Amino acid sequence: MFNYVLRRILGAIPLIFGVLTLTFFVIRLAPGDPASFFIQPGVSPKVAEQLREQYGLNDPLIVQYFKWLGSILQGDFGRSFSRHRPVFDVILEAVPITVSLALIGITMQFVFGILLGVISAVKQGTKLDRVLTVSALFIYSMPEFWLSLMLIIVFSLKLGWFPASNLNSVGADALSTVEFILDRLHHLVLPIFVLSLGGIAGLARYVRGQMLEVIRQDYIRTARAKGLSENVVIFKHALRNALLPVVTILGGSLPALFSGALFIEVIFAIPGMGRVAVEAVFARDYPLIIANTFISGTLIVLGNLLADVLYAVVDPRIKLG
Fold this sequence. Notes:
Blueprint: H1 2-27, H2 45-54, H3 61-73, H4 87-122, H5 127-140, H6 144-158, H7 177-214, H8 218-225, H9 230-242, H10 244-267, H11 273-282, H12 286-314
């Protein structure tokens, strides 16, 4: 197992490096450069020229590339053009926020998605099954940005139940630890709901299909013939085997949740990785864009690796060579 994981990680290094190299050249094809972000009415054009000289943007592209390559090989992603700080300082402030959103979101997805999928399969053909099926299809096809705006209008602006933006209320630093945590959770209700709802609907449909396939197998009939209770048959025998393909979804869910968090963080004004990425793109902040690409690529690789490892753990028949 260790050798397999090590080989996968080593094999991913040139892949991620290739993605970063492609990103380096592609972002420079876009009109404008980071210095143009600072060109405002009343500001001397010499300021932009000084910034280009300071950040080496006047050098030929191939020279810029090899300078960037030398810094990357030393683990230095440079300084943010727009924030005038080391890139990793900016990233380290945003990553914990996005990670917490993603972990809560994926937990909600799998708990409620599996539960609703099992209920729908067990109640196949009933009104409850039809309601869950239609609701899942409707929710799964609903755009996240539209749902976010509708929830803000209804629950924030009209009813005033939940905050519309930010992670905490103004002056939250003066609250006690418990009050601060409760205030943070109060602000996260709408973002987490939007982030996890589509995944819950999709996973519920997938689990339902897997459960319907499994409960028709002979060993399930045998388990029932032995007099086992329906709960034991469903949750111990049927669900355990139905969840084997679901494990592969876990690996893909991590990068998907991070990309979904991009829209959520922008709409709800949450200072996470998504908002940093959007601001970096608008500011033509090359180092920050590349750092975001590096993190996204790493998450995809680790997500796929996690899926492979978990699949081998839950299914002893699979050997990782």
